[in-house]
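Inputs:
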Amino acid sequence: MTPLANLSLIEAADAVAQRRTTSLDLLEACWANLDATNPQINAVIWEEREQAAAAARAADEQVASGAPLGVLHGVPMAHKDMYYQAGRLSTCGSALRADYRPTITATVIERLAKAGAYVFAGLNMAEFAQNPTGHNKTYGDCHNPWNLPYITGGSSSGSGASVAARFNYMALGSDTGGSIRLPASACGVTGLKPTQTRVSRYGVMPLSFSHDNVGPLARTARDCARVLSVIAGHDKFDPTSSREPVPNYEGFMDGDLRGTRIGVPTNVFLDDADDPVVQAMEAALLVLEARGAVITHLELPLMDAISAYGGIVSRAEAAPIHAEWMRKDPQAYGKHISGRMYPGYAIPAAYYIESLSRRGPILKEFARQVFSQVDVLITPTIKTCLPTLEETDIDHGPPGTETKFMAVSANTRPFNYLGLPAISIPCGFDPNGCPIGLQIAGRPFAEGRVLKVAGAYQSDTRYHWERPALLDNMGASP
Amino acid sequence: MAAFENDIESTISRWHSITTPNDPAKRLAAELAQTIEAFEKLRGTLVFEDEPAGFETALQATKEQT
């Protein structure tokens, strides 16, 4: 049998259900790799060993009893530390919430628990989910398991790093401008941002309520499909959540791409891209073409408007959430966040309303022009080779660092304004040994098609199974 | 540019009682000039018959038909 720490989420759940392993063994495999790697990568903010062990034993007793099991039964999980669990710590990556213990539990946590999963730790993240790199002034920067001086991507830094370091089968991240897809890309794992409104945000720390999304980071697209089937759907506690029916997303993943129309943008997404990244994307397109996909190159419309309006919405919505702390204790924030949040207070309401009111018409026009030609779009998730933590450190770097910092999320932000589903899957490595991610985006609620393309690619490649050398060097379990 | 930065800082201070927290904040506030330029470039270039329209309606209108 595959060593426990290397299993995908689905393999782990199936192994428990079929009594080939126990939940306690899975948990111990997670602890072994966490203990071996976390001192280097700093992906964890808090852990609860006794409570998790009790949950594992209860899960194993349920298996022994022959009771019906959920599709994630007995799988230990750790999430970005911004998913509220009543009575449990939820730091949101900030000193300002170092002792915060909410009284409510996020709907997505409830749904995962109902499917049989349990939580064993809270993961590092960008402070209040507000940077694309993984820097954190309070809890320490998260380091890339593939090459420690390099960024993990953010803001779900610990989510990406923990899955890559093989001590977590699946982590929830949040995505307001790329915060699921960027760490998935940088850490060599698979991360899915669903359609806006697809997943409830109740009990999840808000950043920009028009752009915030909840989604999984895991080893494979099939893992993400299973998680999405569990967490998607209307929630009475989140009136913005969609009533669109939730399909069995794994059912879409038949590997058949014959006739699937794939669009590759000729503008914006490859501007100033690094050669290794472009080459990895082109190699991935050949894999998909061999499966029967038809590749089309096209210029995407409205990109200037999407960029301008999207930036306004995110900044204007984040600013008021933090206004009281920015008045009373601005130095409690890292410069990363207070520096970037500050201009949001000067954005005129008319700009914000224009940006928001045009979102629907722009989506309609974008979809009319683009999705009449192609079924999905493919781009690099991050268009450059990964920068180091030092190169993107606004707190300690020279003037201009903030510009390099923002380039990391240039390819992910447009899909937040458009509200489209998008996934990042591993497709190669840059010259520094850091992973390269491929972004696949589709129409609203076309997660099934996006997952189908991603799953087909993963059927023919092994990048998603590659392990960081750190695991072997640190004596982690195989 | 200094006048623009000062305007931004005084606006934020007056409307929100928030002072400039650090140098990156000053530099990023100065970049609002680029935000204004981006909006100026868009003026008159976009006309939508159904404007304003709800985003949720647009999500439904543009979803994949199965």
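The mean pLDDT of chain B is 90. Flag for discussion at group meeting.
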